[in-house]
Q: What sequence folds into this?
């Protein structure tokens, strides 16, 4: 008992020292009593309500007596009258045996044939349920990211796509999904009004193929979908992925860097929110003016504790003339020495028609993500009314950005056809169609055709030559 309290005291003292400094800590400690520092036994309900403790001890103690204790499970409980003041450390039979009254914790709730007591909790999907004093479970009423009803409704309906229950999303609320899994802010009005590139297409010589998939046209040069985790930085993921693809295609595979989203998240902080959302036009500006290194050099660190943490910027670059830049710091990954900076040309915006011309590489596109998108498994996505039978908190949406990698057309049995885009998301490869999804094309579904942007890598013949040697030298 003494050792136990001593440990707690030392621990508390250490924490206080860290927080308020030495002198203040002593003052605070002297005002606290040992008992107030004891672990609260009953916060989660009495775990052994039928055991006899004070009775087995042979009675109760008047007033305060810090030695009037009995071993209780893996700790101790008290049988002095003082315990009643804090309630939290009385033995389970204290009220019945010492006071002759009902304990303040009397509710019992049932779940799967097991008994639970007042204050005990369990988590049902994204909602915490607490055993109330009346013996009934009281559950939070949040809409969850994975709602079995919505998954079922989508799979029973004829929507053209199917839904799945993803374990990585299970237990999150819809609001958390929108807060932590998206992360693109709408560009400003001036950017949104940026002129779209129009090409004069000769309808004869430039007929659109019915199907185009950049991953098939440029094997090995289109980067696989990544997982942003609980970091709302799709702005950085979509931009880095498109720029990576472009450099690989443009250099004809001499350079196939996977550019670092973390470099953007931690260093492109001007008017950007890191893991709390950002803008893709800002990300392209950074890629053009400052440039970023590869993922191997500056690896992604998804936030563990607070989802909004960004991390200190660990990469800087300086100008070496003609707009080109060079890193002035080593890679944050100390096992990697390739800190080459990759830059892009100014971004251009294109009308959704142009992106359908032949031989088009990948683009970044903004879209609105609705509640049912999180459960997408395969097929051609369209926002459904599957949540419309539920209260309004089950419907919500947020802005996201993704990488468009191709398009196609699916023939239906009745002779009609459905046009779609192929796009890469940043929710890992076990989501959707290997990390990709298809979405209705030509009707601005979820506003995916509103803002499509791309930029070329800034690569010279010299770069390609250098990189060629770089790689060769490493093999010699
Ligand atoms: C002790 O517990 C009883 C029963 O819960 C309660 O009625 C009484 O007010 C408590 N006394 C103090 C001093 O908290
Ligand atoms: C969904 O997945 C979670 C965790 O993987 C599981 O606990 C839950 O029972 C599943 N729900 C349905 C309806 O399959
Ligand atoms: C796209 O092309 C279609 C058909 O060629 C045309 O009707 C439509 O106006 C075009 N949209 C834009 C934004 O240029």
A:
């Amino acid at each position: 008992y003494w050792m136990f309290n001593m440990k707690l005291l030392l621990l508390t003292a250490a924490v206080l020292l860290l927080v308020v400094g030495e002198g203040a800590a002593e003052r605070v400690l002297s005002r606290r009593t040992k008992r107030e520092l004891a672990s609260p036994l009953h916060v989660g309900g009495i775990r052994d309500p039928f055991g006899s403790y004070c009775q087995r001890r042979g009675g109760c103690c008047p007033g305060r007596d810090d030695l009037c204790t009995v071993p209780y499970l893996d700790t101790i409980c008290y049988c002095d009258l003082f315990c009643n003041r804090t309630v939290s450390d009385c033995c389970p039979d204290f009220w019945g045996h010492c006071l002759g009254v009902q304990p303040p914790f009397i509710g019992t709730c049932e779940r799967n044939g097991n008994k639970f007591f007042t204050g005990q909790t369990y988590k049902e999907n994204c909602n915490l349920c607490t055993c109330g004093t009346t013996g009934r479970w009281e559950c939070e009423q949040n809409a969850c990211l994975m709602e079995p009803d919505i998954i079922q409704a989508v799979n029973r309906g004829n929507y053209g796509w199917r839904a799945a229950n993803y374990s990585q999303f299970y237990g999150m609320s819809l609001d958390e999904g929108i807060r932590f899994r998206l992360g693109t802010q709408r560009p400003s009005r001036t950017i949104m009004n940026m002129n779209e590139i129009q090409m004069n297409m000769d309808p004869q010589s430039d007929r659109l193929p019915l199907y185009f998939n950049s991953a098939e046209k440029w094997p090995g040069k289109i980067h696989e979908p990544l997982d942003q985790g609980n970091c709302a930085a799709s702005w950085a993921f979509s931009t880095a992925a498109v720029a990576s693809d472009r450099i690989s295609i443009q250099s004809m595979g001499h350079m196939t860097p996977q550019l670092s989203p973390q470099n953007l998240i931690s260093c492109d902080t001007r008017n950007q929110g890191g893991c709390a959302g950002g803008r893709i036009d800002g990300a392209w500006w950074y890629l053009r003016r400052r440039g970023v290194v590869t993922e191997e050099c500056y690896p992604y660190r998804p936030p563990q504790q607070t989802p909004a943490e960004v991390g200190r910027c660990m990469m800087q670059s300086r100008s070496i003339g003609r707009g080109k830049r060079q890193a002035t710091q080593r890679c944050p990954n100390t096992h990697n020495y390739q800190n080459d900076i990759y830059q892009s040309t100014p971004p251009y915006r294109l009308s959704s028609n142009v992106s359908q011309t032949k031989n088009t590489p990948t683009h970044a596109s903004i879209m609105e993500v609705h509640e049912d998108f999180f459960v997408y498994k395969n097929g051609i996505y369209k926002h459904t009314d599957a949540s419309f039978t539920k209260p309004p908190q089950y419907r919500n949406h947020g802005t996201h950005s993704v990488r468009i990698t191709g398009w196609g057309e699916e023939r239906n049995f009745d002779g009609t056809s459905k046009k779609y885009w192929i796009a890469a998301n940043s929710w890992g490869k076990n989501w959707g169609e290997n990390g990709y999804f298809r979405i209705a094309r030509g009707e601005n579904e979820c506003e995916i055709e509103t803002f499509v942007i791309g930029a070329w890598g800034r690569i010279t013949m010299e770069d390609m030559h250098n990189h060629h040697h770089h790689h060769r030298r490493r093999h010699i």
